[in-house]
Design brief:
Number of helices: 11
Helix content: 25-40%
Strand order of the largest sheet: 3-2-1-4-5-8-7
Number of domains: 1
Oligomer: single chain
Largest sheet: 7 strands, mixed
Shape: globular
Distance between the termini: 53 Å
CATH superfamily: Vaccinia Virus protein VP39
Order of helices and strands: HHEHEHEHEHEEHHEEHHHE
Structural class: alpha/beta
Length: 282
């Protein structure tokens, strides 16, 4: 009985959070004064944490061709991610992947049950499960792909793209502690967990320059990072008007606001704490 009561309370609170996210996002979206040259004016957050909903909203509306499908790896509980706005507010279909079984169950309850044609799968994505992930994807060229797993992001992206996965718009988390110039990623480890990798929690993921190198190799174009310094955005330029992309003046790098506040030092000071950790040059 106690367990069922707790589940009911969690479900009730999640429903409230979803209602607030939809209302907040809708109001924020409509109140923007968009300058297509300045991605900072595109940002708004309904379910996202750092304005990603707004950046993705502007980019997807500029697509020449669309299948209205989204794939997110690292979807959490469905109330704070980059796919829920598309699935619930914009009626996209899609696939959410989450490694934590409890979070995945909540995402399934919170989003997938309300979004026809969408699914949430509990899977800890490794190089050994990439093929299994792709078997669950309906479109290998989704309109939007979001990747945020706080660790093996580069290695998983590399495996996906090597297998022909080619989304139109990509949002990937970067680690600003690596700074704006290093082209590096943390070393691959099957069971990588940011909270266990280093006491500072700063050793994880990919530098923004490494992402730029990676996506340029695959023919993508860099657009911007969000103003909170968490995500970088890339697009397949063949699916956008060149005049639009040429006019965008995006941020090339921004300090992660949360890490800056938590550690009281900028990327140089943060990197000094993890400089002895193994890094892979991209």
């Amino acid at each position: 009985m106690l367990g069922r009561a707790i589940d009911y309370l969690i479900d009730y609170k999640d429903r409230q959070r979803i209602a607030i996210a939809l209302a907040k996002g809708g109001a924020s979206m409509l109140s923007r004064e968009i300058d297509l040259r300045d991605p900072r004016t595109w940002e708004f957050s309904g379910f996202s944490q750092n304005g990603e909903d707004g950046i993705l909203d502007v980019l997807r509306r500029r697509l020449k061709d669309t299948n209205r499908y989204v794939v997110e790896v690292g979807a959490a509980d469905g109330t704070e991610n980059n796919s829920s706005w598309l699935l619930l507010a914009e009626r996209y279909e899609g696939l959410m992947i989450e490694g934590d079984p409890r979070q995945s169950a909540r995402a399934r309850r919170n989003v997938a049950r309300y979004s026809i044609g969408s699914a949430c799968v509990s899977m800890f994505v490794t190089l050994g499960t990439v093929d299994e992930l792709l078997e669950k994807v309906v479109y290998t060229d989704p309109d939007v792909f979001s990747l945020d797993i706080d660790g093996n992001d580069y290695h998983i992206a590399n495996a996906l793209f090597d297998r022909g996965f080619r989304p139109k718009i990509v949002s990937v988390e970067y680690n600003s502690a690596f700074g704006p110039e290093r082209s590096v990623t943390s070393a691959y480890k099957d069971d990588f967990r940011r909270t266990a990798a280093h006491p500072s929690h700063l050793y994880y993921g990919v530098s923004v320059t490494a992402w730029k190198t990676f996506f340029a190799k695959h023919g993508y174009r860099f657009v911007t990072v969000d103003s909170n310094g968490v995500n970088a955005f890339f697009v397949d330029p063949s699916l956008f008007d060149t005049s639009f992309l040429d006019a965008v003046e995006g941020l090339g790098f921004a300090e992660n606001r949360y890490q800056l506040r938590a550690h009281g030092r900028d990327h140089a000071g943060q990197f000094a704490r993890i400089a002895d950790q193994p890094l892979v040059t991209v």
